[in-house]
């Protein structure tokens, strides 16, 4: 897992690296600019591309000047530079790169307060106006220039952070920012990249290593950790010879109602495909024919058998499509000591009967999307605030709270907030949450502690969707296809051939 740090901590890491290694600040800027250029050249391999680099006069601007020079050295001959001289300060590294730039044929245009901006004929704009040094919302000349660039509709590749986007903290939906198609960010993605409020400022982001001291960064205090593929490889337990279905646990899925039987089937199917040894569905009897037809591997349990099931199963998933039945079922579930996943209609019941939150067994996993979360814990104005509440509630109640979104935040009872990097907009469709619930229940049934089950489940769920997009360029993926992609995704991650 990688620690996600604030802009202030990045400056600390910068300082520490410069003090403790032979690398000077100007060389670190050169590394960063070179790393940017490497990705930029993959995005725009045509060296005839006309590029406009817009630089401020701080270190983000210094990067911009170095990038201009490095592109020119790599035969990008149509590079031009604008410099926004709206402040009085020039960083030392900006000045040093300015001196280097004067030795090149690159045309430079400087803009002062109140100046008009000419049209931008170039094909692509590199945004090096302001980076992680942003300390207030954009206004005046800065805002005018940003709006001018946005109005051209030209693709923007931002250096480190799109100008105007705070790297961390509360993001205001009314914030003016440069709208970047790509952001090439240094050493770590910024926390705000994971909040939906940043969507208008960032379409894609890339992260490049610039040589900051990793050991130092990993020791910095931060609640936020980014899940990586290596975490999945460490957590996943390979299937050993001579194991049998009993080795992989028995999962009970409590789900479905007359009109929402599909949710139950999806959860059961995901449970099956995620490796539970046995899966039993507690669904209304009228769903039995569908279950037997679609999922012959899954067993059925009726109302009369339910009391006998509690002790026979290893994990429970409750909620998908459950409707009003949630109200009487949750009582039985909370009296077991089984690890459990609580989703959908079971969460709605909890939000209407909040005293039940106190009765949930420790380390139960709650999987709300934004609306369910706010119904449970109150309305929030920003994702930053919502994530802070998730942390407080997870610690206070000793629960695992998965706040679902394109990037799911996992609030753990120890106060850590994990960020899941997998998943994509093609997955934004009904049934996707039911699949996640089935997957999490399967991993709990296999004996993974809740902490590991959520990491595995969340990461794989998104990775299966990402794999489908990568393989077939699909723009929409039905939940069923994600289910079917789970075993191969797990295999590719953990059993590479
Ligand atoms: N350690 C690293 O990650 C490295 C980062 N590099 C680059 O440096 C920038 C951060 O540079 P910094 O000089 O600290 O700040 P900026 O260039 O972002 O801003 C300059 C300056 O502008 C003023 N300012 C802030 N907000 C506003 C505003 N809204 N309106 C007007 N003026 C504003 C403030 O005084 C700032 O100090 C980082 O993003 C990377 O691109 C290094 O190149 C490599 C190491
Ligand atoms: K920038």
UniProtKB/TrEMBL annotation:
Positions of the YjeF C-terminal domain: 228-493
Cofactor needs: Mg(2+); K(+)
Binding of (6S)-NADPHX, residues: 59-63, 131-137, 160, 263, 321, 369, 434
UniProt similarity note: Belongs to the NnrE/AIBP family.
Subunit composition and interactions: Homotetramer.
Known role: Catalyzes the dehydration of the S-form of NAD(P)HX at the expense of ADP, which is converted to AMP. Together with NAD(P)HX epimerase, which catalyzes the epimerization of the S- and R-forms, the enzyme allows the repair of both epimers of NAD(P)HX, a damaged form of NAD(P)H that is a result of enzymatic or heat-dependent hydration. Bifunctional enzyme that catalyzes the epimerization of the S- and R-forms of NAD(P)HX and the dehydration of the S-form of NAD(P)HX at the expense of ADP, which is converted to AMP. This allows the repair of both epimers of NAD(P)HX, a damaged form of NAD(P)H that is a result of enzymatic or heat-dependent hydration.
Protein's name according to its UniProt entry: Bifunctional NAD(P)H-hydrate repair enzyme
Lineage: Bacteria, Pseudomonadati, Bacteroidota, Sphingobacteriia, Sphingobacteriales
